[in-house]
Amino acid sequence: MLPQPGGLPRRRLRLSLKLKLLGVLIPLSIAPIALASVGWYETMFRSSMSHSAAITSQYSQLVAENISQYTDGVSHALDPLLIDLNFQKYLKTPASDIVSQARYSLAFEPLIQSFIQSHPELLGVVYTDRKGKILYQSYQKRMNYIYPFDADPFFAALPQIRETTLSPPHSASYLLDKPEEILSVVRPAFDLSSGQISAWLIVDIRAEYFRELMRGAYPDKDGQILLYHPQSGAVVANQQMDRPLLERLRGAVAEHDPQAREWTFTSERASYQAVLEDVKIGGWKLVWVAPLDAITDGVRRSLRWTLMIAVFALALCCFIAFPAMQAVLRPLDKLVGGMRKLPRGRYEPIPQPAGHDEIGFLVQTYNRMVVELERMEREVYQSKLREREKEVLQLQAQTNPHFFFNTLETLDAYAALNKAEAVSDMVQTVSRMMRYNVRNDDGWAPLREEIAYIRDFLNIHRHRNGKEVRTEWEIDPALTDVPVMRLSIQPFVENALKYGWSPALSAEEFRLTVSAGRIGSALRIAVRDTGVGADPAALAMISRLLEQGVDEADPYFKRHTGIYNVYRRLVLVYGPRVRVAFRGGLLSGTEAEITIEDG
After folding, report:
1. Of 277, 280, 267, 287, whose CA–CA distance to 226 is shortest?
2. What parts of the sequence cross the membrane (predicted)?
3. Which terminus of the chain has a smaller tally of CB atoms within 10 A, N or C?
4. Bridge partners for 237 per DSSP
């Protein structure tokens, strides 16, 4: 049975019901919004990533094409020089023939000077060949001809270069002025008579020129664009880059799928998006990289606004829902309050709700029951229990307040948990049971209606305990219309559940059987269970009641009125034609048997 708080505790109960409703309403409201927000966020995030990658890919392709076209232009600008007759003679001239070198170089130097003048970003052009000759042309710098070219790794690697390439960044240490960081377009020079590579032309280009190309294409401060040479790991970035990020980027480029043009990676707990494009010279790659936080900042702001709107909507719903819930709880509170007064002999009807739903019908039926109880009690007290029919009605009515009080407490608890389906089922069940209790039929009913009443009782028991009792029905179909005394079987079912059943018992350990049949001309009704069994002392008291009869004032039956009331009503109605027997013990289950001889 649920607790029976009163006064201030009842006020606290009402508040707890509202809070429980809020506890149910919040997940029901937040869960769909959260799921929709997460799905929306994922969609917007992917869309933002795809959009950013598409735009960035266009920028990267543009820069890569510009760099490729520029280096191709520099290389092709050397074509007139490479096929010049004097240049070809210079290729074949030994390093010791200074006079011939001077004569031929003076003839083709105007071609180099014209080339340098048309490209102000160039530091100069270096010529070197297999014969050991070195020649340098520049308007800005001067060559240090005593520089140890053989010891310089850049010059030492020239014999392996078989096609035009763009070198990694290196310092122009072979110049007399302050060295600058440069990238060099290296063009092999073929001896046209032999078809062999005899020399190399090195066009020195300031590294800053490539940075300017990249800054002009992508000025966004949140992203970085850089030239990356996978073979050497060299990088030319449009702005200063953190060393940990640069090292992680090198690893990410090496690890990513070569077919993928875009991917994400993590560096120092921050995520980045990268886009890769090929530069058509020297194996260079153009890489764009930007933090995901910068790309998805707008998406996160939109998500925050969505959540703020959701919280506001939830608060508004709760504000509107509380008065509605109060309208549902108010008649239930009054109904429970009225039921609390019944044991004290105060039969006060409660105001009828405006609606005609199940709760309204329950209140209406309760009010009729209160009036009927008051009338019955008045008649019983007036006749001082001298008439048998009135005593039967009074004994029957004594069970009603107790049962319906417990049921309403359960209804109150289910309503607090927002279990509308269970509340509806219980209200309809209780309504049927109350109709059965208060109808005017002189206390008689067909056996099938008494069985239906027991089924409703077991349904209420299932709701109250959260577990169904395994029940078997062995009813002779020929006896379903036989009239029996109302509420003559249900108390034995209740007694079996009270003393023999426990929620801890499984369906195999506890089985309730209700049977009705004929033994000769007598009607036999039995209720048996396979539960833990009744206490021997209780069985002894019940046996004494059945064999000798005891007074209602006995302390035991003051505490256990159910069996006493039904036995008393059976005796009053059927007289000597009825026999009631109890059998069983601890761990062996209990059987209650009613035998009624034909009158």
Report:
1. 287
2. 21-41, 305-325
3. C
4. 226
Please give the angle made by the CA atoms of 563, 569 and 575, to the nearest 5 degrees. 120
Q: Which residue did the predictor score with more confidence, 320 or 310?
A: 310
For 342-400, write each residue's pLDDT tens digit.
Answer: 776 676 787 777 767 777 777 788 888 888 877 776 676 456 434 545 555 555 555 55
pLDDT in tens, 106-142: 999 999 999 888 888 898 999 999 998 999 998 888 8
Radius of gyration of the chain, Cα coordinates, nearest whole angstrom: 50
**379 vs 121: CA distance, rounded Å:** 120
Q: Based on the number of CB atoms within 10 Å of its own CB, is 453 exposed (0-12), middle (13-18) or buried (19 or more)?
A: buried
| Tokens standing for residue 403 | 């049962």
| Overall size of the chain counted in residues | 599
Q: How far apart are CA 12 and CA 15, in angstroms?
A: 5
Residue (of 276, 272, 279) closest to 262 by Cα position: 276
For residue 377, which amino acid is it? E
Sketch out the chain's domains with CATH numbers: 78-209 (3.30.450.20), 218-295 (3.40.1840), 441-599 (3.30.565.10)
Instruction: Answer yes or no: are the C-beta atoms of 207 and 227 closer than 8 Å.
Output: no
